[in-house]
């Protein structure tokens, strides 16, 4: 969370002569990080307050107007401006006198616009560089024409952009950050004093009914009457603008001001629009709707909390108010709401409705019960000052009362044990006191946690951390670690994962990352039907309703998406699938490696086969067998897929995807796929390689071609031949030939034999003898015939 605040506002609670940069440095070192400091008001020397004396239409342009502007000189300035409906005679507003250059870099020059001379420009806040919003600041009558704009708007200021960690909502405010800065600087903070007039002159009825105390542990409200709705004073508007909030009217601006000042979300209702003068904090009824302040109508469910009157919802609890109950210009009587809501409820509701607000951002971090008190009192005080309001009811409080301060026994000897430094007891007490902790005792301290840190500071080591950061981490001693640095053992699975990924990337593959959740529809496309699935109780959407039992569906969808842009494709994914193992047990996570190949040369099957075999070879897995895949499997083309086994353990498979699957995914090209059980693959992989010397004796090569059944795989021939005789040191596949002259369901496979001895030079006669016996073995075992 980031907060932008005016440094001048900050200093109202922090009396210091240090520069803004020194304060930012100390706060960053010991508290919240100040990401940047922005100076405002610089470069506005040519901008003054101007009084609009008269306006008229430009006779030569329908969309241009002419204004006579008093800038404190005898002769008024003539300015041509566009159709700005908010500009009227008597307005006091920022005027740039030509020639000048604004902080945004915009150059203002004298010009003739459609036959009329223009000597300056009427400026929006965005053009002055003091805000990113197209807001026009109007000054009060006590600001004289010609007053420099920097003086009129108190722009000699800086904006602090502070990052506040999510566990510290108490610091997401001017007061909270001032408290942190005071502790970091070692000075006292000027505590805010709230003294609104609570005297009730005209009492008006308001009933508050809390039906969901767990979801709204505390709710406070107060009625105020005789309010005058109008623009906020310039100083308040500027503080809101500096923090990125748009001024609306004095009542709404007061709630936003308190949001920034105290980190306390509030809301204001038009009292006369509340049916029955009643507020009910309840769950929404199914089908109820509300038109929110953002102009969107939201349909609510029974899981959502609403603030309702006697008839309908008037706000989505903790997130946004309703348009129908909002305070408008004619509003005379209002109700201020200040509450605490369950953070989990706010987060779920905000996500379900896709609706976030500054209030919900704070409520979902968890606010304290006592925080409502300062919020409601400050709202009353500001309304009395800025809108003339009068209190018309007692402060109504329902729900739980603020908890007592938590107590911690703090043994200061723990500081030495954890920080390796002696910090004087007086310094420890001073640091804790500066952060709002009440401290008593010696050595063993009795520490009371301030209400704004309840739940955040719980244990004695939390107090040690508080002391350490304010004392200064840079002041703590630094030592090299003693003893031998432990060597972290490497997980072999991670090692082989990286190895396999590097091999595949080296072969031209790209890695894919898919969600672990999928839909039944997607699994049906991948022919995973009648499988027992692991379902999610609260899926994000219907596309993420079950845990995936395979990577194949995701990879094929990746192929379908990417083939629109690429004619060839090689992708893989190495990730977990999830298989059920009993109703009460957690699912079994199995690591799989799945890859797909679309080869422009229609050689996808052989590319997949070569990839699978090279991967096995690189991982040191050699003694594997290839067996035909079950022809009933719907994933593969019949006769175009092989299973890989090692010691009768299933290792994986590869082949061509069936036409049915190609149609399911809208694919018009042949796709080959390999799918490995990577957990087993990693357990069998070997990192130790055996090296052999370069052969001393020459080799003899012979080529053979045999006619075999069409269903016989080359791997079966290769395995038989390579194991037949120790002098056969290599078997290389050459080609396959099919033709009518070979007979039905027959094919000819040509291969090369390499013979070599490590002891002597072989003779041609003994090679011939080995080939003769090999042919007999092929005929006997594989029904092969020499071609």
Please specify the SSE layout and strand pairing:
Layout: E1 2-6, H1 7-11, H2 20-30, E2 33-40, E3 47-57, E4 65-70, E5 77-81, E6 92-97, E7 100-101, E8 107-108, E9 111-113, E10 116-118, E11 120-122, H3 125-128, H4 149-152, E12 157-163, H5 174-185, E13 207-210, E14 218-225, H6 234-242, H7 250-262, E15 267-270, E16 278-283, E17 289-291, E18 297-299, E19 305-308, E20 313-316, E21 320-321, E22 334-340, H8 343-353, H9 358-363, H10 371-386, E23 390-391, E24 396-399, E25 407-411, H11 413-419, H12 425-434, E26 438-442, E27 444-448, H13 460-471, H14 492-506, E28 510-511, E29 517-518, H15 520-525, E30 534-535, E31 546-547, H16 552-562, E32 569-579, E33 588-598, H17 604-618, E34 625-628, E35 636-646, E36 649-657, H18 659-664, E37 672-677, H19 678-684, E38 700-709, H20 714-722, E39 728-737, E40 746-755, H21 764-782, E41 785-786
Parallel strand pairs: 13-16, 28-32
Antiparallel strand pairs: 1-12, 2-12, 3-4, 3-6, 4-5, 6-11, 7-8, 9-10, 14-22, 14-23, 14-24, 15-22, 16-19, 17-18, 19-20, 20-21, 25-27, 26-27, 29-31, 30-31, 32-33, 33-37, 34-35, 35-36, 36-37, 38-40, 38-41, 39-40
């Amino acid at each position: 969370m980031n907060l932008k605040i005016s440094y001048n506002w900050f200093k109202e609670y922090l009396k210091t002569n240090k520069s803004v940069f020194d304060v930012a440095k100390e706060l960053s070192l010991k508290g919240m990080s100040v990401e940047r400091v922005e100076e405002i008001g610089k470069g506005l020397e040519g901008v003054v307050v101007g009084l609009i004396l008269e306006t008229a239409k430009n006779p030569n342009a329908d969309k241009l107007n002419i204004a006579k502007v008093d800038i404190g000189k005898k002769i008024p300035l003539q300015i041509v401006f566009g159709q700005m409906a908010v500009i009227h005679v008597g307005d006091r507003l920022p005027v740039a006198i030509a020639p000048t250059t604004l902080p945004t870099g915009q150059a203002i020059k004298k010009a003739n616009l459609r036959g009329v001379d223009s000597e300056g420009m009427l400026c929006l806040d965005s053009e002055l560089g003091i805000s990113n919003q197209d807001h026009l600041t109007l000054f009060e009558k006590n600001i004289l024409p010609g007053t420099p704009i920097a003086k009129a708007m108190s722009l000699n200021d800086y904006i602090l952009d502070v990052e506040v960690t999510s566990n510290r909502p108490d610091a997401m405010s001017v007061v909270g950050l001032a408290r942190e800065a005071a502790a970091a600087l070692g000075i006292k903070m000027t505590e805010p004093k709230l003294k609104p007039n609570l005297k009730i002159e005209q009492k008006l009825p308001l009933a508050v009914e809390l039906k969901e105390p767990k979801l709204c542990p505390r709710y406070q409200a107060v009625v105020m009457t005789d309010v005058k709705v109008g623009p906020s004073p310039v100083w308040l508007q500027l503080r809101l603008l500096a923090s990125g909030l748009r001024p609306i009217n004095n009542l709404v601006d007061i709630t936003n001001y308190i949001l920034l000042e105290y980190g306390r979300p509030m809301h204001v209702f038009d009292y006369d629009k509340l049916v029955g003068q009643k507020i009910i904090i309840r769950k929404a009824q199914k089908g109820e709707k509300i038109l929110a302040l953002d102009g969107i109508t939201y349909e609510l469910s029974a899981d959502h909390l609403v603030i309702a009157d006697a008839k309908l919802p008037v706000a989505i609890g903790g997130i946004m108010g309703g348009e129908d109950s909002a305070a408008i210009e004619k509003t005379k009587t209002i109700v201020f709401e200040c509450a605490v809501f369950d953070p989990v409820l706010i987060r779920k509701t905000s996500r379900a409705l896709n609706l976030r607000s500054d209030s919900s951002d704070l409520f979902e971090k968890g606010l304290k019960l006592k925080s409502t008190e300062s919020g409601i009192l400050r709202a009353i005080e500001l309304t009395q000052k800025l809108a003339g309001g009068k209190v018309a009811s007692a402060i109504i409080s329902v729900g739980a009362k603020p908890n007592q301060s938590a107590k911690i026994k703090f043994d200061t000897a723990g500081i030495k044990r954890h920080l390796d430094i002696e910090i004087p007891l007086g310094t420890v007490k001073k640091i804790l006191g500066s952060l709002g902790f009440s401290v008593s005792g010696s050595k063993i301290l009795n520490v009371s946690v301030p209400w704004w840190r309840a739940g955040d500071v719980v244990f004695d080591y939390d107090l040690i951390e508080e002391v350490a950061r304010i004392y200064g981490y840079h002041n703590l001693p630094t030592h090299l670690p003693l003893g031998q640095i432990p060597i972290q053992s490497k997980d072999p699975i991670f090692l082989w994962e990286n190895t396999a990924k590097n091999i595949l990337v080296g072969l031209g593959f790209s890695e894919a990352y898919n969600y672990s959740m999928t839909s039944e529809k997607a699994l049906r496309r991948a022919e995973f039907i009648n499988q027992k699935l692991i379902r999610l109780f609260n899926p994000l959407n219907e596309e993420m309703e079950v845990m995936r039992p395979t990577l194949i569906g995701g990879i094929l969808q990746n192929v379908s998406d990417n083939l629109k842009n690429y004619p060839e494709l090689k992708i893989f994914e190495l990730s977990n699938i999830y298989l059920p193992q009993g109703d009460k047990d957690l699912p079994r996570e199995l690591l799989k490696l799945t890859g797909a190949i679309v080869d422009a040369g229609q050689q996808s099957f052989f590319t997949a086969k070569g990839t699978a075999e090279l991967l096995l070879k690189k991982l040191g897995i050699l003694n594997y067998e290839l067996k035909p895949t079950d022809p009933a499997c719907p994933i593969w083309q019949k006769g175009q897929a092989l299973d890989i086994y090692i010691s009768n353990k299933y290792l994986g498979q590869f082949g061509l995807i069936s036409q049915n699957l190609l149609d399911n995914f809208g694919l018009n090209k042949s796709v080959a796929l390999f799918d490995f059980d990577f957990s087993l693959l990693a357990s069998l992989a070997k990192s130790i390689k055996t090296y052999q010397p370069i052969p001393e004796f020459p080799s003899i090569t012979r080529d053979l071609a045999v006619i075999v059944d069409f269903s016989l795989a080359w791997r079966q021939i290769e395995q038989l031949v390579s194991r037949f005789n120790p002098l056969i040191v290599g078997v290389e596949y050459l080609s396959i030939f099919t033709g009518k002259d070979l007979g039905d369901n027959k094919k000819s496979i040509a291969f090369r034999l390499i013979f070599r001895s490590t002891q002597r030079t072989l003779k041609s006669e003994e090679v011939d003898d080995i080939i003769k016996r090999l042919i007999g073995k092929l005929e006997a075992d594989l029904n092969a015939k020499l071609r």
